[in-house]
From TrEMBL, chains A, B:
GO biological process: D-serine biosynthetic process
CDD domains: Thr-dehyd
Lyase recorded as keyword: yes
Domain annotation Tryptophan synthase beta chain-like PALP: ranges: 11-304
Name this protein carries in UniProt: Threonine dehydratase
Length: 320, 320
């Protein structure tokens, strides 16, 4: 399914390069290779899964439209993928999502429905209700095989690009919310680069995946908002993604919010890329938790770049 | 020479992707494709020319070392290229260059010699004196065939990538200082994509190349400093680069400093890349001078991303 998704994505998703800097290598004490999915269409890897899911629908179903719920990046990925297929898209977003993400999603042609996060229906309930009312196909952000397959195409690229860099063994660190990207990459590496091991990275206080990998069952976060790493905050790993991660991933890593912000500032200064805090936790782990990583080289996926200008400006000047 | 340089650069220089955003297309009124050379090693295209020149030296000459004078980006490009070849490098820099560029050049292993820009010897005289004293090979920033050949490899990539995007005709806008990159790209396009036309872009008040292309002779800027676009401020087009540009380039374009800063902010917001003001003038022309550009698509080379955090923070919040 991942290889089939890669064929459908060919010429539509961007093949992001692998970046590096001798300054980052020095901090980490090993070679650091960065996969900048912030450079993907819509500013995050989510376009891959969105395109994969929309392109996999039969034409009649697709014409009726799709619906997604998302704190922002999945929204934009699905919105653009739907627009490029000529399909309507309805996006359910929490009303405290960053304004840039709400604006972008609307500008990409989607109808945005805001919901109030703390009370009322869960976002899943809102999504299910609207999709059945209008005959839309719900595209879940991670617990959806075609979405996982699309995100997994990142792993096929990493396998090939790492080999070209002479890196055959080591850890691949992935910013992890529900686990769609992490499980997709893990399967792609299993097939194409068995010496590389996927490892999820999460912010402190939202380490449901790390704890789930330890306990062997699906663990839940106490809080579901209130992190600068909003893009990767989910209640728990998915029912489809968790068994994959459990079988294939190395132990999870956890970084502080400040470490994520320092990684944002270093990605600005040394790689010239814009990464949002949630998209920088894998790089933060590569740089600041070197003792928990194995191998001469580490690969970190920077998953998204949709950050408000004020927060980015504060971060790069504070940690300059 | 460009193709030979491309072979020497293979596996050393980064092949930067072509980026785009529907939001930028809407501003420009046509497709905008961006070649982000800010993602090149050392944060600018200058690494290509530096590597090309250092790698072309015979081993004995290279062992004695190289010397370069530069406001910063050429310095870093030569410093890293020399370090990776195991050759010593001396870099002559003006003492008002951005601190980040001075620091980076030193950290890349080069010996930095600062000179006082307004008075005293010209930087050319300083460079010539030190290189003859120590037996170093001077690598000029643009009027140097192997440097032009290295920068021209950007054009070979553009030709191939534009074709893959279905773009066979149109303008390729290039941030232009002395003309090394512009003349190199112009020759590469002549050979590989004759429907694409190179056009230099400069900041207002420093439009020596645009005026030279009109007059047919080498024109000079009145000022040689005092621009936020410091990276591309040179006294005049080169004696080698100007005849090439005169033969192959379309008319030059000129943008205001404010337009360059707005392009920096849009590249942050829409492309998730960090571009310095001088590296954004081509994108600024693509976005804000659409009436002076021909074709359904335009390609803009963002040439560098070595900008201080304070200036970048001010720019993205002011023009958000």
């Amino acid at each position: 399914m991942i290889r089939a998704a890669a064929q459908r994505l060919e010429g539509h998703a961007r093949r992001t390069p692998l970046l590096s800097s001798p300054f980052l290598d020095e901090i980490a004490g090993r070679r650091v290779l960065v996969k900048p999915e912030c450079l993907q269409h819509t500013g995050s890897f989510k376009f891959r899964g969105g395109w994969s899911a929309v392109s996999a629908l039969d034409p009649e179903t697709r014409k009726r439209g799709v619906i997604a719920f998302s704190s922002g990046n999945h929204a934009q990925g699905v919105a653009l993928a739907a627009a490029q297929h000529g399909a309507p898209a309805v996006i359910i977003m929490p009303n405290d999502a960053p304004q840039l993400k709400i604006d972008n999603t609307r500008a990409l042609g989607a109808e945005v429905v805001l919901y109030d996060r703390p009370g009322g229906e869960s976002r899943e309930a809102v999504g299910d209700r609207i999709s059945s009312e209008r005959g839309l196909t719900l595209i879940r952000p991670y617990d959806e095989p075609q979405v996982i397959a699309g995100q997994g195409t990142t792993g096929l690229e990493i396998a090939e690009q790492a080999r070209a860099e002479g890196v055959e063994t080591g850890d691949v660190l992935i910013c992890c919310g529900g686990g769609g990207l992490t499980s997709g990459i893990a399967m792609a590496l299993e097939a194409d680069a068995p010496g590389l091991r996927a490892r999820p990275v999460e912010p402190e206080g939202f380490d449901d995946v790390a704890r789930s990998l330890i306990s062997g069952g699906i663990e839940t976060n106490n809080r579901q908002s209130g992190s600068l790493c909003d893009a990767i905050i989910t209640p728990s790993p998915g029912e489809i993604t968790f068994p994959i991660m459990s079988r294939l991933c190395g132990p999870g890593l956890v970084v502080t919010e400040e470490e994520a912000l320092r990684a944002v500032a270093l990605a600005f200064k040394r790689l010239k890329i814009v990464v949002e805090p949630g998209g920088a936790v894998a790089l933060a782990a590569a740089l600041f938790h070197a003792d928990k990583i194995e191998g001469d080289a580490v690969i970190a996926v920077c998953t998204g770049g949709n950050v408000d200008a004020d927060l980015f400006a504060d971060t790069i000047t504070k940690y300059d």
